[in-house]
Amino acid sequence: MAELLRTHPLEAWTAAFERLPDTVRIAAEPYVAMVDVRLGTVGPGASTALGVDLPTAPNTWVPAGAGRAVWLGPDEWLLTSPTEAPEELEGRVRAAVVGLGGSATDVSAQRIGLRLAGARVRDVLARGCSIDLHPRVFGRGSSAQTTLGQAGVVLLALSDAGDDVAVLVRSSFAGYLADWLLDAALEFTTTPDR
Question: What domain of life does the native source organism fall in (predicted)?
Fold first, then answer.
């Protein structure tokens, strides 16, 4: 049987992303395994079983090994892993939470990650996002489910300075969002004539 090659939905945007200046860098992140976890009670048992203290403060994320644990709601988290296959992550997490009355669902194909870095990242995001992205409010460890342009996204602050942000977007909206980001970054890519 022939093996199908998996291509990234943002492969066609790579060259355009690479032409951006250092003040606004955009890159498509590689695929990562993602599991949606539902768990009514978070306690020491869940933390021990999962190997990570799930964030309980709204709109936060924490490192989880090489991946992340993102708070999505009072009883919902997104766990990511760049080192495990989706079925491995789902199996491991399911085994850890099913005895606690929880569930785990592989959602790896649902979202694509983009990484935005540079001094003008907040300016670009502010073009289509209504939340306060100032570092005193949206610093490292903060997350937000919001819209960017007209696409639903999850934003993750990766630095305290506000110059490094991960954006998780549904795969079907990835091309739209890539075009939107390139357009929003346009004014920061040229130097006005003086």
Answer: Bacteria
